Amino acid sequence: MGRNHHEALEPAADATASDETDALFAVLSNADRRFVLSHLAQRETPPALDPLAGALATWNDDRSREDARIALHHVHLPKLEDAGLVTYGDTVELTDDADASLDLVDDV
Description:
Strand content: 5-15%
Structural class: mainly alpha
Helix content: 55-70%
Radius of gyration: 18 Å
Distance between the termini: 53 Å
Number of strands: 2
Oligomer: single chain
Largest sheet: 2 strands, antiparallel
Order of helices and strands: HHHHEEH
């Protein structure tokens, strides 16, 4: 007899890789985060938070510079860092692991 219906419910052997891929796409689903990655990739030197917030506010007309700074600090940069795409402190930098993800980010 063939496979039973319980076999289909078992997680795939590569479930962890699939979960990581889902998490990466969740992070990249936000246009502001895609802008941040694209912006960082085009810069020769990593920016501090305030200039990055200014660039985001200029790109996204619906946001003030202060709103962009708050969103970056409390939402977007932590998510990008958790995904292993950026590090931030005094400046915001792409990680070496971000290169593969940049291929998924369209020019925004």
